[in-house]
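Class, look over these structure tokens:
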Amino acid sequence: MISQAHTDVEEKRQSLWLLAWPPTIWAVHFLGSYALAAVWCRGGSTGSYWLGVSIAAPALVALALIGFAGWIGWKKHTIPGGKPSHDGDNNEDRTRFLGFATVLLAALSAVATIYTSVAALISGGCG
């Protein structure tokens, strides 16, 4: 039997903001990385080591933030009570669906952030 506390998922937990965090974090990192590379190379600097470090350090912060959003999404997806379904028309199923979608977007955003950083790290520098 499912307790009443678990079936009454609060409507405030159904926000779409958490769903948008991981792609937004990736987009900010992506634009920042390429803007930094453009300014770095325009200035005549040729040292690719410091450019790589300047892109990899914020990537670690971005990955931590994306991971945190994914963890919150996972916690929402695995709320206790009942079988995890995503097709019901109740607050619990909506919370689980939004949590699962957040986990998937966080994974995609993490892969995209890693690819952005790897491209900056293995590039031969400016030129």
Notes: The helical segments are 4-7, 17-42, 48-77, 91-122.
